[in-house]
Amino acid sequence: MQTTISKKPLTMTFWHRWRWLLWLVVVAVIYLWAVTGLHFTGLQGSAAAVSRSIVHGLVQPDWSYVYNGSGEDLVSLILQTLAIAFLGTFISALISVPFAFWAARSQHDWRHVRSGSGKVVLTLIRTFPEIVLAIMFIKAVGPGSYAGVLAVSIHSIGMLGKLFSEAIENMDRGADEAVVSAGGNGAQVFVLATLPTILPEFISYTLYRFEIAVRSASILGMVGAGGIGTPMIFAIQTRNWPRVGIILLGIVLMVLLIDSLSEQLRKRLI
Amino acid sequence: MITQIPRRPWTQRWHVKPIAWTILIVVLLVTSSHMTGVDVAMFFTNFGQFTDLLMRMSQPAWDYLPVIIRPLYETIQMAILGTTIGAALAIPFSVLAASNLVHNRWLRGGIRLVLDLVRTLPDLLLAAIFVAIFGIGSTAGVVTLAIFSFGMVSKLFYEVIETIDMGPLEALESAGANQLTIIWYAVLPQILNQFVSYFLYTLEINVRASTVLGYLGAGGIGVFLQRSLNEFNYSQTAVIILATLVVVMVIDGVSNHLRRVLL
Predict the structure, then answer these.
(1) Contact, A41 vs B137, CB < 8 A?
(2) pLDDT digits (tens, 9 = 90+) for B28-56
(3) Closest CA to B143 of B222, B217, B218, B73
């Protein structure tokens, strides 16, 4: 017995069979564009020598810079970096809460104008480069770590607000409904049901954001917004590689320590 | 059987833990605001300057747009090449770091330690160092993004590898296949879609990162960003930021769509 195969699945098969070729061509064109478009400057003549001195500086760091009591040493500046990240993240977490409720889509909402506009605002904040924000705040409050704090606290709203609003969207509404059915008003629902339900997630996301803020606080100094970044960029520009080595070591240790501490705390929260 | 109401321990009755946490956070807040020299009053007295800056930024100089089209392309090209090189480097490392493929604890631990160390370094810091090595230009940017995405992608990749179904691997192993054949026929088909998805995700992050790398001389639109900021030409800065925003959003949209199709 012979079975006839209808025409339609056959053409589908053809498309499915040769689709990869189309993708291959698309990807090849993109890469061709990327490779030919970039103007490769190539290696500088001094590249090998510079790399060698960087490695040399990393192997023999400038230990005397670790602590010298001047307030401009590695330990004090690392602590200042952590202070920038901590304060910035704390302020940002507070500001993010209203933004999150603005952007969160609730079940009762038919029109999503409120939620949509909130999401657009958060995306705009998130995409605005933190460095530019830092430079703008330097114009307002002068160079120093205060500008760094402001930059971190505004920039973090974009991500924290998004994570918070997703936490609100996915929260368990049982407690809310229980308080409503017991006759609670809006404020009581918020304080007694909504807040306790989402608080652990909010704190966990804030800790996660703190990890990221520590990294960004350590580079904000490169534009003059305080912290360890300022001596780092000076050391790189003056080719003081032992100094660069010890600062890199300090940053790596700080980030590792904060990451593991925050991970421990987050594991206990959720 | 418990005959009486259980008594709460002393620490719970006096709320020792919450009070201790509150005190700790308040102390940390006070010391860090002291260290960073936070001055709320100064912020509001100088707020005029900030709004003035925003006012000047709210009038973008649109005639500057043709100038920045090429550096914008360069930024995307840097991100594509950097992510590709980083992801290609990440594949062998992620295979070696996956606990279900490599049973040697020391090798795995060593590789993971290296990956952890690479991941601690912020992108701009890498850029500053590579600009010193490769000189000002997009090569430094590509290398920076390659190293930066290598650290991120390899962690995402080995976590994917660790979640695969071990059945096909064992089937091939029992049929006498060698390691390479197992990876090609049993591991790769299971992880390819997720790899591509994470690759696109990293590309999104790198496009964002590459827009500021030029600030330290690593090529792309950041060079123009720094120039306009140094010249106090905020209407040009506004155009650059808006154009970057559009590019980032388009790339995010395309990548999100592709990832949804893939998974």
Answers:
(1) yes
(2) 999 998 888 887 888 788 777 778 888 88
(3) B218
Global confidence as pTM: 0.85
CA distance B174 to chain A (A): 32
Put simply, the answer to whether B125 touches A129 (Cβ < 8 Å) is no
ipTM reported for the complex, 2 dp: 0.83
- High-pLDDT (> 70) share of chain B, %: 100
Residue B136 with chain A: CB contacts under 8 Å:
41
* Binary contact (B136, A41; C-beta < 8 A): yes
Cβ neighbours for B88, distance < 8 A, ≥ 6 positions apart: none
- What is the spatial distance between Cα B142 and Cα B124, in angstroms, rounded to a whole number? 12
B188 residue type, one letter: L
Could you tell me how many helices (H) and strands (E) chain A has, helices first?
11, 0
Q: What does B183-234 look like in DSSP terms, one character per residue? A: IIIIIHHHHHHHHHHHHHHHHHHHHHHHHHHGGGT-SSHHHHHHHHHHTT-H
Measured in degrees and rounded to the nearest 5, phi and psi for residue B39 equal -135, 100
Helices B123-134 and A229-237, interaxial angle, to 10°? 10
Task: Tell me the DSSP string of B110-141.
Answer: HHHHHHHHHHHS-HHHHHHHHHHHH-SSHHHH
The Cα–Cα gap between B104 and A237 comes to 43
Shortest Cα–Cα distance, B154 to chain A (Å): 17
Q: What is the pLDDT of residue A152?
A: 94
